[in-house]
Amino acid sequence: MDNDIKINIKDLNLFIGNKHILKNINISIPNKKLTVILGPSGCGKTTLLKTLNRLTDLYPEVKVKGNIFIDNEDILHTNKNITEIRKNMGLLSQQPYPLPMNIFRNVTYGLRISGRRNRKILKNRVEHYLKQVNLWDEVKDRLKDSASQLSIGQQQRLCLARGLAVDPEIILADEPTSALDPISSQTIENEFLTFNGNYTIIVVTHSLRQAKRIADYVIFMYLGEVIEQNSADEFFNNPKEEKTKEYLKGIFN
Amino acid sequence: MRHLKIKQFEESFFRVIMFLSTLLIVLTLFLIIFTILYKGLPSLSWEMISQVPKGGFYFGKEGGILNAIIGSLYLSFGATIIAMIISLPVALFINIHLVKRKKLVNAIRFILDLLWGVPSIVYGAFGFAVMIYFGLRTSLLAGMITLTFLIIPIMIRSMDEVLKTIPIGLMEASLSLGSTRSETAYKIFFKQSLPGIITAILLSFGRAIGDAASVLFTTGYTDNIPTSISQPAATLPLSIFFQLTSPIPEVQNRAYASAIVLTFIILLISISSRFLFNKFNKHNIKS
Ligand SMILES: Nc1ncnc2c1ncn2[C@@H]1O[C@H](COP(=O)(O)OP(=O)(O)OP(=O)(O)O)[C@@H](O)[C@H]1O
Ligand SMILES: [Mg+2]
Fold it and tell me: pLDDT, tens digit, for every residue of B18-33?
């Protein structure tokens, strides 16, 4: 398989009850690049993201068929520990869900459950990751405060830091800026741009403008199908499919 | 126009209904408290709560109900602790490990609700049968086991109701950080719902200490304070019952005084439940 492909999705179909939600998805996601998933509301972007780290296992009526290869390992049919697979992917959900503990503990949670308890190292890591997401200056004096007291934008950045702290290779972000004001959105966006090259990042977004600003690679979905996927340049300047052209013109959104 | 009038009428009609129902409940509560205070307060004394019954106590002679106070506390603490050890893992398990087994979980909930609705005298009879089967005698232990059965459905379902409200996004967040389901249960869900769990435990304790029927055949009754769990014990509800059925007015009044003691203990539980709820609720101010 191509060395520059991190995730390879083959003939993925997903059903919820008898609704066909994801239809014959075939995608190759480039390694250490930023891939944007675009598409109108309800087309299955969140579902696709959750399938990637098998959070779909939590939902009663979901059935998944097909293959998802991550580093040549089919994570849908593997004997490997799902926990290990998930640990390799940081998830930033649409709404932030801070853990019910203080800010410090939120960042170190992943490290602590994998057995790293050295106080000095933990402190060091907290500072490192909070700086990385641009939150350190705002919270350095209140690390012992409950994370739920932070503003939504701060919580979103905290969740990002928490995800980075487990040292994943892949970052999944589901409309990470949709609930945020322009400035916080900007902060998060810039962070993705800084990370780019070190992580394989997949960002779901509604916003064409945001996609244009950050994407290396674009996947366009419509009603559960992948309509087009291409490098950002090609996708925006030279779209192949009729649907893509309409979408780019803003005919539907 | 007419439509609007009907709407306004509806609005004020339901307002009145709600107001009257609220009034009725508050009045009933006050009436109950007033009655036990009015009848019981004159008989309430330090002697009453610091001594066990002396000979002839039930005929109006000296002594108190310390045996019943201690017996009830022993029983309820014991049962609550055993029930907690069983209920917490079950409640967490059905909300986290069984998220995908919706039908199974609904069946479990349904059964627990049925058990919650079973009258406590039935638990008493069941406990009695179990006791006989194992050759136990009426004792603290037998009472504790019976009460445990009685409050387990209450405790599991109350914890379950709290755990159910935790958004699945929190579980997803925890799992994507590499926690196992059990870590998610004990490190995240338990913490998130701690205030509600404490409330559930205290609610069950309140139910346990106030129940008479389930301990009627299993705990027995004695004027002494038990020194081991294989001895019988007195309980406040039964003590109230025995005193109230006496023909002697003085003894009847003491029954109301005992009711004050029981009510006070339950009130204390409710207040501490509130207090603890607020104390442990610091992580859930926003969300
Ligand atoms: N748990 C569920 N049960 C039933 N249907 C679901 C469930 N989750 C998602 N769906 C359906 O699957 C489809 C895709 O949903 P999904 O959340 O993936 O869309 P989306 O592209 O992320 O939309 P948005 O941009 O609005 O977030 C929708 O039609 C939705 O109704
Ligand atoms: Mg979505």
Answer: 999 999 999 999 999 9
Both B8 and B116 in a single domain? no
**Probe ligand 1: pick from A15, A19, A58, A204, max atoms within 8 Å of CB?**
A19
Nearest CB to B283; choose among A86, A100, A166: A100
Residue where a domain terminates, one of B10, B25, B43: B43
**Whole-angstrom distance between the N-terminal and C-terminal Cα of chain B?**
42
Task: Name the residue range of residue B13's domain.
Answer: 2-43
Please identify among residues 156-185 of chain A the ones whose CB lies closer than 8 Å to any CB of chain B.
159, 162-163, 166
* Same domain, yes or no: B71 and B157: yes
Residues B66 and B172 placed together within one structural domain of the fold: yes
Structure tokens at B56: 């002839």
B38 and B121 part of one domain: no
Tell me how far apart the alpha carbons of residues A195 and A96 are, in angstroms, rounded to a whole number: 20
DSSP H or E segment with residue A157: helix A152-165
Q: Kindly state the tokens that stand for A166.
A: 């487990």
Q: Residue B49 pLDDT more than 60?
A: yes
- Band of pLDDT at residue B286, cut at 50, 70 and 90: very low
pLDDT digits (tens, 9 = 90+) for A197-253: 889 999 999 888 899 999 999 999 999 999 999 999 999 998 888 888 888 887 665
Chain B interface, mutation test: which of A57, A81, A85, A109, most B Cβ atoms within 10 Å?
A: A109
